[in-house]
């Protein structure tokens, strides 16, 4: 019965760990865009392309600190305009990463829902991660809508989050905050307080019946452990 007691003690320890996870380490540098970059670089550690600006609590209140990122399109008649900021980070293959961001569109200058009929029009705001191998080639990508025009509320910060797994061979990832504008759709989108952390949820029993290793799988060993507990009077 000693081994059963040990199993139960290990099980309790795993539950305690799950209840009080360590604060996840932020991987992105300058994730709140508070530090200006040198020269024409608006935000230290971030690259940028096309219509990207810094807003210092002038047009909207920053979600965090006093500075946020403003984007809008280039107003190409009948065309597509990609505007964004990006940062490269190191990653570990096989690790799950949690990415999140906050976005805001003002009611007086709201971005427009994307439609394809009669022609492409509107905005697609995307939070993107591209995993790259040692040669710099993108080997997998994940993305989520960073704001849904016409659905998400205006005049308030909206939080979006996703989880992505670094595939075998991945050594770096590019995180991109992208606003795609089609045609002459009016509107501006603000970004602030982005985050990328390892999803370090500790492995543990998936439920009360998952009594034995390997955890996460309800298998013969759990049934065996249950039967042993049952015969020991633990029911
Ligand atoms: Ca900020």
Summarize it.
With about 240 residues, the protein is mainly beta.
Explained architecture:
Helix content is 13%, strand content 34%. The protein has helices at 2-19, 220-231, and strands at 47-49, 52-55, 68-71, 80-90, 96-104, 122-132, 138-145, 158-165, 172-182, 189-198. It has 2 domains: 1-21 and 202-235, no CATH class; 25-198, Jelly Rolls, CATH 2.60.120. With 235 residues, it is mainly beta. The protein is built from 2 helices and 10 strands; from the N terminus they run αββββββββββα. The protein has a 5-stranded antiparallel β-sheet, with no helix packed on it. Bound molecules: calcium ion (CA). The site of calcium ion has 10 residues, from β10.
Features:
235 residues, 2 domains, binds calcium ion, Jelly Rolls, mainly beta, 34% strand
Query: Mind describing the biggest β-sheet?
Result: 5 strands, antiparallel
Strand content: 25-35%
Task: Report the top-level CATH class of the largest domain.
Answer: Mainly Beta
Full CATH superfamily name of the largest domain? Galactose-binding domain-like
Mean pLDDT: 87
| Helix-strand makeup class | mainly beta
Ligands and ions found: calcium ion
Report the helical percentage.
Answer: 10-25%
Topology, number of strands: 10
In the CATH hierarchy, the architecture of the largest domain is Sandwich
Q: In the CATH scheme, what's the topology name of the largest domain?
A: Jelly Rolls
Low-confidence stretches: 10-16
Integer count of domains: 2
Secondary-structure element pattern, one letter each: HEEEEEEEEEEH
Trace the largest sheet across and list its strands: 1-4-9-6-7
What is the terminal separation in angstroms? 15 Å
Tell me the number of helical segments per DSSP (H or I, 4 or more residues long).
Answer: 2
Instruction: Tell me, briefly, the overall form.
Output: globular
Radius of gyration, taken over Cα atoms and rounded to an integer in Å: 23 Å
């Amino acid at each position: 019965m000693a081994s059963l007691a040990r199993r139960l003690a290990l099980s309790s320890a795993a539950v305690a760990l799950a209840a009080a996870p360590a604060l996840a380490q932020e991987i992105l540098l300058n994730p709140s865009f508070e530090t200006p970059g040198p020269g024409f670089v608006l935000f230290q550690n971030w690259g940028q392309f096309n219509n990207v600006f810094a807003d210092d609590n002038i047009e909207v209140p920053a979600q965090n600190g006093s500075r946020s990122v403003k984007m809008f399109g280039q107003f190409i008649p009948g065309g597509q305009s990609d505007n964004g900021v990006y940062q490269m980070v190191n990653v570990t293959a096989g690790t799950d990463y949690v990415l999140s961001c906050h976005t805001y569109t003002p009611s007086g200058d709201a971005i427009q829902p994307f439609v394809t009929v009669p022609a492409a029009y509107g905005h697609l705001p995307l939070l993107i991660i591209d995993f790259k191998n040692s040669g710099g080639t993108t080997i997998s990508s994940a993305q989520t809508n960073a704001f849904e025009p016409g659905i998400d509320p205006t005049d308030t910060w909206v939080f979006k989050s996703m989880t992505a797994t670094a595939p075998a061979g991945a050594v770096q990832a590019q995180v991109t905050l992208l606003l795609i504008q089609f045609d002459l759709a009016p509107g501006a989108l603000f970004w602030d307080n982005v985050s990328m952390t390892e999803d370090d949820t500790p492995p543990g029993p998936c439920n009360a019946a998952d009594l034995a290793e390997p955890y996460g799988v309800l298998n013969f060993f759990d049934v065996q452990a249950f039967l042993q507990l049952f015969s020991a009077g633990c029911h």
